[in-house]
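In this supplementary section we document a worked example of the pipeline. Step one takes a protein sequence of length 491 as its only input; no multiple sequence alignment statistics are reported here. Step two produces a three-dimensional model, which step three serialises into structure tokens for compact storage. The input and output of this example are shown verbatim.
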Amino acid sequence: MLSLQQRLSLQQKLSPQQIQYQKLLQLNTIALEQRIKTELELNPILEETLMDDYELEQEQMEDNPDTGDEAVVEEDLKNSDDEFDVEDFMNDSDIDSELSYEKLNKSNDEEKTFPVAPQKRSLRENLIEQLHMLELDADEVFLGENIINSLNKDGYFKDDLERIVNDLRLFEDIEISKEKAEKVLEEIQKLDPVGIGTRDLRECLLVQIRHGSYDPYYSYIADKILSEHFGDFKNKRYDNIQKALDLSKETLKSAIDLILKLNPKPGEGNIDSEEMNQISPDFIVEKQDDNFIVTLNDRSVPSVTISKAYLEMLDTNKRKRKISERERETHKFLREKFESAKGFIASLYQRRQTLMKIMRSILERQFEFFEDGPKFLHPMIYKDIADEIGMDISTISRVVNGKYVQSPQGIHELKYFFSEGLSTDSGEDISNKHIKELIKEICESEPKKNPHSDDKIASMLKGKGIHIARRTVAKYREQLKIPVARLRKEL
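The serialised model returned by step three reads:
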């Protein structure tokens, strides 16, 4: 008997600059500002560009607005470790345009003000603060922050813990075993509110029972019910539980009442919404004549360039025939910092180009929304944008996550523009967000003494050519936080 075993191993190798670029893509404007300030402190080769230099460099950039597709830039990143010649940079008249990250949309016009939400602490921030108070090492804290940032609106952890561990290994060079990762997750679940970060309702209730200050006896019974008879509990088959555990009706009732007092949604329905963080739009979309103009809202972001003084030091050391050991070490240090600075600036510039390319594509596909409002939002998925501009879906995902655009229609997260859709009787594709807007309008205009049931709303939408089930109407209505018809009734 012959056996053939074949093991295929595919391991993605990313250069340090590619990893840096991927990280920068995930940052919003506020986080990017802090990241650049940190880099300016760490790398003496970098320096902040003065305001007087902006006009010239802006003109240089505007003369060459198109930097080519992502594939070309990525190829440049792959070759970033090639040998360099200081003279090439010392004598390059375009050094400021090529080795500087400037705000292309800076102008001398008066400062524009953009609305921001008040600075309040979110539940997610409070959890991270609690995390830092635990006795964990730096790698475990970093993992914990990733877990907390992955929690859904109800405070549940629905992500793949193993995937997060693998990402840390790939992008951060952090090795954490699955066992240690599970322990970090368990510690998070015991933070306030208890039960946060659990993976399902059963685990959520169990964590609250086991780490709450309830009656020991009834806690024990409740634990047994949730651990061994959760299916019966969920389906209210209390007779089965009473028989299996040999309980009196009074004891069973007390244990069930205890479980029903627990919080099934530790995140309170939206882990970020009750106390919103400061929101500063990353993009500005303004209408000029009949066109919309996209700008990157990076006025507050420091502009960086290569220090010519340090370049001259490099060039001087290179021209010397004999240099001391100390000079040799200095030259090596400066060279390393030069390569780091060059890579950082290239990543910043590529980030800007990627962001603008994606935002312009969103604007083009959702032009009617920016013109007329939410009812004209079209169905769109990440793949639509990725295919149109020739980028990976993962790149699109990184850009839209946590970034906002200000337009005549208000401030929206970029994720808002991506939604599934369905076809109407006329063959037109409409977004589920459009349907939600229609449901909202129907409920707002309904007779208050006799509000519409979900069946009635579904029937009214059908009259508009939109075929949608009653249960789907109910789901969208709940997402809009609109009560059922009997609770909307007014005397």
